[in-house]
Amino acid sequence: MAIFVPYAIIISSDVVSEEAQHDKELQNVLNALPDTPTVEPILSVFLLYHLYLLRSGGTSKWSVYIENLPKTSLRPIHWNQEEIVVLQLAGTSISRAILAKLSFLKTYYDALRQVDGWFQTITWDDYLLAESWVSSRTLSCPRNDKPILVPILDLVNHSSVRNAAWEMTLEGVELIREPVDIPAGGEVAIAYDLDRGTGERLYRYGFIEDESYDCISKEVVLFDVSPSRVFGGNVVRLRLEVVKGGFSDLSFLNYENWYTLSSDRN
User: Which of 5, 159, 182, 200: disulfide with 186, CB 3.0–4.6 Å?
Assistant: First the structure.
C-alpha cells in the first residue's frame, strides 16, 4: 500500500450536508444554489467556504488541504477569449461545451452573490477555480457513483501506463502499488478515465495525453498543427504518416470519432 486516506477527511455530499446542519453560514449559501442534478456545485461551495475560513484566519480539518490546492488551472474554462476562439475555429468537440459551462457557472455564481455574508468575498475567479478543483480532482464513489474528494490521493498524477490503483475499504481509500518495479525517486501514477478522448480530458483536467507511443490511449492525437477540414462536416483527414505508427488497431474509429485516414490532403 502506498497511501491510506481515512473516511474522516474524505469530502462527500453527506459530509457537506452534515456540516451545513451545524453551520448557518454554509447552509444559507447552499440553500441559495439553483436546483442542480449534480453534486459538483455543492462540493464547490464547500471548498469555497473553507477557503474563506482560511483567508479569515480560521482553521478546520481541511485547512491544510485547501492551502495546498493549486491556485491556477489549465482547464479551458480559464482560457481567455482568444484562446477559446481558437478551439471554436478548430471545430473541437468541447468548444460549445466550454461556453455552455461558463454560462451555467455564471448563473450559479450570480445566484449565490445575492446571499449576504461570506460569499460576498468570493470572486468570479475564486468560483471558477473551485469548480476546477472539483472537476479535475473528484473520484466516483463505487458505492453510489457520486463524486468525492480524497485529499492526498488527488495529488497523484496520471499515466496511461499506471503503476498504482485505488480502492475503497471499510476504513477509507487505499492507493495500492501495482506489482511493477518503480525506480528510486520514480513517480507513483494512476490512470484517469482512459475511456475519455483528448478533448474530454482537456476539458476536465486541463491536459492532453502524453504523445509518447507507449502512453497513447484510445484516441487520435493530432500531430499536425492545422489538419485539413472536409466541407460540410467535422471530418479531419490525417495523412497516414501523421499517425506515425502509433496505432496498431484503428477499430476504435466509431460514430463519435469522425476521423478519416488518407494519404493525401484533399
Answer: 182
